Structure formats: C-alpha cells, structure tokens
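Reminder to self: keep the SMILES exactly as supplied, no canonicalising. Ligand is nicotinamide-adenine-dinucleotide.
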Amino acid sequence: MVEKDWVIDNWIIKPEEMFNLKDKIAIVTGAASGLGRAIALGLDAFGANVILADINEQGLEEVSQELQNDHLVQKMDWTKLDDVKETLKNALKEFNHIDISFNIPGINIRKTVFDLTYEEWNKVININLNGMFQFAKEAGKIIYDYYKQFKGRKSGSMINMASVFAEIVMPRQVAYAASKGAIRQMTKVMAAEWAPYVRVNAIGPCYIETPLVKQVMEDRKWYDNIRRQNVLRRFGKPEEVVGTAIFLASDASTLYTGNLLMPDAGWHWFGGWTGLEEFEDEWK
Ligand SMILES: NC(=O)c1ccc[n+]([C@@H]2O[C@H](COP(=O)([O-])OP(=O)(O)OC[C@H]3O[C@@H](n4cnc5c(N)ncnc54)[C@H](O)[C@@H]3O)[C@@H](O)[C@H]2O)c1
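Structure tokens returned for the bound complex:
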C-alpha cells in the first residue's frame, strides 16, 4: 500500500534526459552501410561520440563526413582477433572508455540446404556468429570493467543485431537463420553473466532496404512475396530501426536485458497475406 506522502526517490521524468546520449561513447561495427550507418548517425544525433568500425574503409569515410560530434574511424575485419583488439585499443586511447557497443555486421547466402556448400555455410557462420561473439566478448570486457566501479547504479549497453529470422524461418535461410537464432541465445547468456554492469539486448528487424537485400528487391515476385509476410506489407527503411537502437542504448531502457526487440512490422506473429488478394489493391 502506498503511503499518502509517498514520493519516488529523486526520480523526476525529464524528457530531454531520457534518451540523451551526450558524453556517451558508442562503438558501431558494420557502420559503413545500411543499419549500422543509420544507427551511427542516430547515436551522433542524440549526442554520442561514435567509433565507426567496418571492413569497408571507403564507406566509413563517407559516413564519417556526416557526423557532427567527435568520432573515430577504424577499418576492421571483425573475424580477425588482432583487428578487433587494435580497434578497441584505439577507441580507448581516444575516448578512455566505452559505454555502448552495437554489434552489427552480417551477410546472407540464400540457397537451399542441399545447394549450400560447406564453405558457404562456414562463411556465413564465421561472419555472422563467430565475428559477433569475438567482438562482443572483447568489447563486453571493456564495458564490464568500466561499469563495475559504479556498483550497479548504472550500466553500459550492448546491442547485438539479430533478425526476424531469430524467431521464424523461410526456405533458403539455413545458415543465416541458424546464426541469428544463435545470436539470440548468446545475447541472453551474456546478459545473465554481465548483469548488472552491462545490459545486453538484441534487435530483430524484418526486411530493411539495404544492400543486404538488394538481390530480393531486384526480383519483383520475390519482393512481393516477402513484403506480404508482414502486417504492414512493406520493407522497412534503415532509419526506422534507429528508434529501437536509441531506446536500447539509452537510460530509457534500464530494465531491459536479454531481450529481443523486433521492429518487424508484425512479421513474427503474423501468418502472411497469401491468398487474401482483396487486401492487395493498393499494391497493384
Ligand atoms: N537489411 C535487412 O533486411 C536486415 C534485416 C534483419 C537483420 N539485418 C542484419 O543487420 C545487419 C546489417 O545488415 P545491413 O542490412 O545493414 O547490411 P549491409 O550489407 O548494408 O551492411 C553490413 C555491413 O557489415 C560490414 N561487414 C561485413 N563483413 C564484415 C566483417 N568481417 N568485419 C567488419 N564489417 C563487416 C559490411 O562492410 C557492411 O558495411 C546484419 O547483421 C543483418 O543480418 C538486416
């Protein structure tokens, strides 16, 4: 029972503070393109200093030109441990600590189980899962050690990029879906082990218009088939994932850890529009 004069200790909602990332240091891997680029721009807009890391140096330079706050550019192949260590070492040299890590790179090879070669399976798993584990482990240690000093009064934030395919599947996604399902479980274990110092969450978007899904978007039949799987009957744009990213990076989400947040246009709970042509008029 709440007493009459009960107040929430020192707790006043300040809209301008809740999502504020000023003085936060955020590392964004996969920052040269697509979702990573959009998230890096979003973090910068909300006040963070961003370390842009990616294997694509030219893409990094282009994104770097769009940032307003102090930032760092790091060419890095996250499947190579030396690259990862060098990137994090330079980040610490420049900014002293890290508060937020977005672990983003991923590729897809869309083939059936019988057609996918073992080399192709290994390639997808190596980039999507092994690379992410390696980077998350190294960055997680740095964030964990830094936040330990605050004895649980505040926490760092790690965000792993999963996919709607962490929850559901489609044919021709065997390696990709396996990697994303594993990322979902890996996220929970890290969240459990690193609490209360680092919150670890995952994001699971539907198809988003980036170079990753170019192959699908160029095939009208394939594209139409896929967009009908979600309630909004469309692909998302990279900027539509930024709100989820800022929420998870900021103090607005201090009770979230081990979760998978899904900006997926309702895909994971919906059965698809196939056979319901009366709902398709506006798309013809
Ligand atoms: N686009 C979508 O529909 C969609 C949907 C759900 C999840 N995702 C996930 O979002 C993430 C980003 O995808 P995207 O659509 O922005 O793709 P993208 O191809 O536009 O960007 C991926 C970035 O990762 C970088 N990268 C690839 N291998 C790397 C490596 N070894 N080391 C460092 N960087 C590397 C690339 O250079 C590129 O800049 C992926 O994990 C993807 O699975 C994408």
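Points to follow up:
The chain has one domain: 19-210+235-272.
The longest helix spans residues 118-148.
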